[in-house]
Amino acid sequence: MSIPSPLFNCRQATLLIERRADETLPFKTQVQLRAHLRLCPYCRRYAFQSLFLARQARAAAEHRVPADVVLPPAARQRIQQALDQRLGR
Amino acid sequence: MNAPPDRAAPTAEPHLWLARFGDELYRYALGRVADAAMAEELVQETLVSALGALDSFRGQASERTWLFVILKRKLVDHYRRQARSPFVPLDLTPDHAPEAAFFRPADGHWHPEQYPAAWATDEAGRGDLALEQQELQRVLQGCQQRLSAQHLAVFVLRFVEELPAEDICQELSLTAANYWVIVHRAKLQLRRCLEKNWFQLPSPRQT
């Protein structure tokens, strides 16, 4: 299946910016995308910001929960009961 | 025939799991799902499944590592359930697709009012103070919660859990083409949301 040219199309260019993170694009498409990015400051920004976003989302999951947060006592008790039941205690 | 192990494999100690690893598993889950009740449930599911799968614990990995592998599996299941619950077919017709809000359907150029603005994310920008970083991540998480369940599932599995695209397509029954469309839409929406709610607000240091 041939890939529509991203040369003059920002919608297609930004789609391919996402796609190239997962797979190698055909050579011709890579050339067209690079040419587009040279010409288009908005898609250049998109490309940079898209990576920035992904990095921040990963960091957010890691840092969102402070290290002193603990399992609430009620949940702990419930889980212990579920485990004890299965451990035959 | 399996050769007998030359030394005894470490045995799991399930009765100590909750005390040893409960809080850590809970914090991990809590950073990745929307609410505390869901995180608690994931911890419970993880430990209960681990009990049922004790035979597969061979001691090559530590108990802790093994439990985290199971928790990550539970997170994928969670996102798969979420993505599938109200099934929303993808609208791929150019005029009605969400992309039309960002790009002119006729030629695919950005609508001028949707031009990505410059973000101050460089060294001198506002993004590098620890406190502001935290605030930015809070805003981003808020933006993520506004994505549809399916878009959120794809985004989290790809960019937070860092699963390969192929696995995500399989887990969520997506074709590769639909997967890229969803990644693109999720990124477009998050980008705009973050720009509106973070980068366009006056920074305390810029006044």
From TrEMBL, chain B:
Record's signal peptide: none
**Which residue range or ranges hold the RNA polymerase sigma-70 region domain?**
20-84
- Keywords annotated in UniProt: DNA-binding, Sigma factor, Transcription, Transcription regulation
The entry lists its GO molecular-function terms as:
DNA binding; sigma factor activity
Pfam families, per database record: Sigma70_r2 (PF04542), Sigma70_r4_2 (PF08281)
Q: Name one GO biological process term.
A: DNA-templated transcription initiation
Q: Indicate the segments forming the RNA polymerase sigma factor 70 region 4 type domain, all copies.
A: 141-190
Q: Which PANTHER family match?
A: RNA POLYMERASE ECF-TYPE SIGMA FACTO, RNA POLYMERASE SIGMA FACTOR HI_1459-RELATED
Homology family? Belongs to the sigma-70 factor family. ECF subfamily.
Name-wise, this protein is RNA polymerase sigma factor
Q: Which organism was this protein described from? A: Hymenobacter jeollabukensis
